[in-house]
Amino acid sequence: MYKIPIGVDNFHKLITGGYLFCDKTAMIADFLSKGEDVTLITRPRRWGKTLNMSMLYHFLAPEVDGIPTAGFFDGLEIGKLEGGSYLKNHQGKHPVIMLSFKDVHADNFEGAVEKVRNLIQRLFISFAKELVSSTHLIEDEKEIFKIILSGRSNVFMLEDSLLFLGKFLYKHHGQKVYMLIDEYDTPLNQAYGNKEYLDAMVNFMRNLFSSCLKSNSSLEKGILTGILRVSKDSMLSGLNNLVTYTLLDPEYKRYFGFSASEVSYLCKEKALSISMEEVRSWYNGYRIGDLVMYNPWSILSCINKSGRFDVYWVNTGNNDLIKQSLSRSNSDIKSKFEQLMQGETISVDINKHITFDLLDKNETSFWSLLLFCSGH
What we know:
Layout: H1 11-16, H2 26-33, E1 38-42, H3 49-60, E2 63-64, E3 67-68, H4 77-80, H5 85-90, E4 96-100, H6 109-131, H7 139-149, H8 155-159, H9 161-173, E5 177-182, H10 186-191, H11 195-213, E6 219-226, E7 242-245, H12 260-269, H13 276-283, E8 286-288, E9 291-293, H14 296-304, H15 320-328, H16 331-341, H17 363-373
Helix pairs in contact: 6-7, 6-9, 7-9, 9-11
């Protein structure tokens, strides 16, 4: 009997641990076949973003955490596409930088920078064995690597750290690098409500991302995931090569969350009789293109509890960003929010691009935040 993968966001663990899962590997083909240099995909919390990034990582890299990835995708959907050409040409054949900002939680800018410094240091440690002794790097490059590796980098070197690492890997392997950045917006979410902290964090993250993702000759492709698509006049202002896919875009629609047919499949595999009417009543779902997709955390938790419906998603993390924004909002927003809480329907304008400093001043930004952050 298959286990239910509650909280499993590592692809290797998912496919080797006896877990029930839906095959989303065709996403890899969509990502590789698109022409953009840098992709941003946004979804609410607990919608499978980290698992899909782990899937991409395991597909592209020859090994992850010292474990070879060869054979992981045999028999999965990606292996059947284009006569197996994606497996033949890409699986395990690329240098990959994988980084997640999910744990960058701090009370101030200095603490956040220290968190990022530790994160980058651990990343450099993972490449130390191959790069410190590389015959393709000159001594000055090795010295830069060792400074960041030791945690002695200043803020300016830290902002260029991913650029440096990409260039070092390109020189060492003779292949351009794939850069995977998960939960890119977490540091800004944490800073919201403190203008000085937020402004400093926006500037720091803008420099970090612009350095490694814009006009970088060592970059093959980059992909970021997060909850919000922050407007171009803030953190992503330097990335004019960025293409964004939100809940309002049909691309990548079936790769995050579960469709009705996938919910039925999962229930059938666990011998549960759950009507889709009940699923819709409890979890509603998002219409993305021509598909209605359901929050995977809610569905899996319901199945794990033998079909018992509950508000599982609400307890998976804090909603401080929504709470703070609502508390600062005007009376019209609060009145409409009360209507929603009473089960009524409202019609509002939505904007894909969120500006943090306008969340409590711009009504459209608030409703956009609610749409993109709420996950059922």
